[in-house]
Each structure stands twice: as C-alpha cells, then as structure tokens.
Amino acid sequence: xxxxxxxxxxxxxxxxxxxxxxxxxxxxxxxxxxxxxxxxxxxxxxxxxxxxxxxxxxxxxxxxxxxxxxxxxxxxxxxxxxxxxxxxxxxxxxxxxxxxxx
Length: 102
Prior knowledge:
Ubiquitin-like (UB roll)
C-alpha cells in the first residue's frame, strides 16, 4: 500500500478547536497505524498537538479513547497496523472523549 486515505472522527471539543466538521480525511504514505494517523493529524491541524497525546511521552491523554471497527484500540501498541477497513477508508478511526463520573 503506497498512499492511504483515512477517515477520522474527532470529539466535539477537538472539532471546534481544529475548525472541522464531523469527519476529516487524512492522506499519508504507508500502512496506517495509530502513530501515523495521529502524526498526520497533528501536522495537518497543528492546534491539536498535545490535545490527543502528550507531546513528550506520546501517550494517549487519559480521557480519550481510540476505536475502529467496533473495537477499542486504546491499549494497542501505537505502531500496530490499523484494521484493513480503516486503511481502505471503509471505516473511520474514531477518537472518542471518555465519560467519567458517578
């Protein structure tokens, strides 16, 4: 796979910050991984740097989760390949704001 078009859905507060709609499309080289999708997202929308993952440790922020194809990918290694349906653009990569409270 040379070039990938990945659909990404952001939570409302990050959509507002980036000034985008419900879904965005990113294009980048190689097979998509969480790291490559987040790298492309931060390059395209620099105002999102540090909002999804820590800029130093690159760890996912505590109240954000990653989903694709109805699976929680939040604890997968950042360089693990994303599912085929995400790589083909058939399914989006979802960044979801976690809900906490009691």
